[in-house]
Amino acid sequence: MAPLSYRTVDAFTLTPFKGNPCAVIVFDPSDSRKDDDSFLLHLAQEFNYSESAFLVPLPPSPHPSIPDDTPTFSLRWFTPTCEFPLCGHGTLASAHTVFASHCPSAELLRFETMSGTLTARRLEGGKIELEFPDDTLEVTKTVSEEKEQRLREAIKSASPEFEGKLLGWAKGKLGWIIELSAELELEKVKIDTPFGGYVVFTQPAPLKAKEDIRSRVLDPVEEIPEDPVTGSAHCMLAPYWLGRSGPRSRLPQQLGVDERDGLRARQVSSRGGDLDVVWIRKAGRVKLRGDAVTVMTGRLLL
User: Fold this and answer.
1) Where are the domains of the chain?
2) Coil, helix or strand for 94?
3) Catalytic residues per the record (predicted)?
4) Cα→Cα distances 14→182, 219, 294, Å
5) What is the pTM of this model?
6) CA distance linking residue 53 with residue 27, whole number of Å
7) Catalytic (active-site) positions
C-alpha cells in the first residue's frame, strides 16, 4: 500500500498549539483502507487527538440547496475509542485541508456525514463558515424536582467554586448545559465531572471582553475528558442563549455577530479558541465561523 499523507490542523485559532488539534487524511477513492473501520480506529488511536477526520472524494450528486458542481466528500470522525457522529473542529480542520491542498479555487464544500449533509464556505479574510443542525430537541424541557436536586448536587461536587454561581441549565441531545455567573473565572476552575456524560459549562462574558459567552466542555467517558474547542457544543449554546428571554437578558447589550441571532464565543480551555456563532432559527441550523492553521504534515508508512 502507498504511504498516506496526513495533516494536523489546529482549529478555531490562528495560533499554532492553540485551538483544537485534529489529524486529517484524505483517501484516494480507490484505496481500500478507507472502508476498514478497524484501520481508521487504529489511526485515531495513533494520533491520539480528541478526534481525527477521514475524507474520501465523492462524485457530484444533486442536492436541493447546493450547486451540483460543489466538491463533495464523505467525512467521518473517530475518537481514540469510537466513531463520533458530529464534530465541529474536525469539520473545520477538514475544510481547511481540502481548501489548501485539494480544491484551492473552491468557495464551497459539501460533506456527507453520519449527521447528514454539512457545508463549509470560504469567507473573505480567511475564516471558514460551517453549517450544522441545531440542537433544540430537549433544550427547553424542565426536569423533575428530584432530578433537579441531583443535578444541583452534581454541579456542586464538580467544583466547590460553583457554589452560589448556578444560574440555569438545559438538556440537549448531546448532553447538559450548565450556566454559571459571569463573576466566576471559569478558565481557572478545576472541574471534576460526576455527571457521567457530556456537559457544557457556560457563562456570559465580562462586559469589556471581546466575546459574548464563554464555555468549557467535558466528557469524562472520553480518553481526553476536556475538549479544547467544541463546535458541536455551540449548536446547543446558540439556542440556549438566543432562544430564551432569561439567558439572553444576561448577555452583553451589544452582541457581536449578526445582531439578534449571533454570538462571539470563546472556549476557555487550557488551549483556548474562538468562533462566531449564528443561529438560523427558522431553518434549525447553526453557522459556525472560525479560523484554522496547519501545524504539521507527514506520511504514514503503512
Assistant:
1) 4-129+290-300, 145-283
2) helix
3) 51
4) 26, 25, 9
5) 0.90
6) 11
7) 51
Class of domain 4-129+290-300: alpha beta
pLDDT per residue as tens digits for the range 273-295: 999 999 998 889 999 999 999 99
CA distance 44 to 52: 6
CB atoms closer than 10 angstroms to residue 107? 11
Q: Which residues of 132-141 are buried (b: 16+ CB within 10 A; e: fewer)?
A: bbbbbeebee
d(CA 277, CA 289): 6
- The 10s digit of each residue's pLDDT in 174-197 is 888 999 999 999 999 988 765 667
- The 3-state secondary structure of 21-60 reads EEEEEECCCCCHHHHCHHHHHHHHHHHCCCCEEEEEEECC
Place of cell 473501520: 37
Assigned C-alpha cell, 9 = 490542523
Length of the chain: 302
Q: Which of 90, 92, 60 is nearest to 73 (CA)?
A: 60
